[in-house]
Specification:
The protein is of the alpha/beta class. The chain contains 9 helices and 11 strands. The protein is about 30% helix and about 25% strand.
């Protein structure tokens, strides 16, 4: 089967028009006409992931994060981006990214997968983009949902740490209120904090908060920064499931590489 059939499926799942203006989702390396032998799914198409694809006979890498965000004027291997691109091209491996367009759709999106892992109910878009939404797609930034039963802050943090498989959570001070309504944004979500507060969320799960940004909780919400990689890691599982359920002529596999550049001591 040709790659263009898989691209059509992925772009129907999360149309390119839903990506943010700074993004570079889509086919980054390769041609739509190439035949698919096997697919490898990762968050990042690093050199190690490309090598994994080579070693295991995968000729397509589907990544959440685009390996190229801005234009490249030279490709001579001076950094990890150029080395990954060179290795992919030399070995006829296609790289396709499905990024903020997958973040921005509700159904089968990045945030809905987090909600599923946490058992949140009645989820809806936190900040809808009504100009993009229609009968087929609910589009916008972040989501908000609720636990069936409220949790104490301590129960919530312990539950979150376990379910999201993270070794550490950076959070604001414990407030004297239970946690029932929860806002979620996989990846960098500081820009949604005020919207989460306005939506009466008791907690906001996201990543990449800077020191002074934790003060912006203003004793109104519990910020739980679980890490960028940790918040998006189950996107791999999501894409593998969707691809394998819809295609039988090849298999999609999850990378064995942990591409998180942040280590904890």
């Amino acid at each position: 089967m040709k790659l263009k059939a898989l691209i059509e499926f992925l772009e129907n799942l999360a149309p390119p028009k839903f990506q943010e203006s700074y993004d570079n989702a889509g086919l980054i390396v390769g041609t739509p006409e190439q035949e698919i032998s096997s697919v490898l799914i990762a968050l990042d198409s690093t050199e190690e992931v490309i090598q994994e694809a080579i070693d295991n006979g995968h000729n397509v890498v589907i990544a959440h994060h685009p390996i190229i965000f801005s234009g490249l004027k030279k490709i001579n291997g001076k950094n990890y981006i150029e080395r990954a691109i060179i290795k992919a091209i030399k070995n006829d491996i296609a790289i396709f990214a499905i990024h903020t367009n997958l973040d921005n759709v509700l159904v089968n999106g990045v945030n809905a997968k987090i909600a599923e892992k946490l058992g949140l109910q009645n989820i809806q878009i936190l900040v809808p983009k009504s100009e993009l939404s229609d009968d087929n797609y609910q589009v916008g930034s972040g989501i908000i949902g609720a636990f069936a039963n409220a949790k104490t802050p301590q129960e919530f943090l312990a539950f979150l740490k376990h379910e999201m498989q993270t070794s550490i959570i950076r959070h604001t001070k414990i407030l004297d209120q239970s946690i029932k309504n929860v806002a979620v944004c996989g990846g960098s979500g500081r820009f949604l904090l005020e919207k989460a507060i306005q939506a009466n969320a008791d907690a906001f799960i996201s990543a990449d908060f800077k020191y002074h940004e934790f003060f912006d909780a203003n004793d109104q919400i519990l910020i739980a920064d679980i890490g960028h990689y940790e918040s998006e890691q189950f996107t791999i599982e999501l894409l593998q499931m969707l691809i394998n359920e819809n295609f039988s002529t090849f298999a999609a596999h999850s990378t064995r590489m942990v591409t998180n550049p942040i280590k904890y001591f």
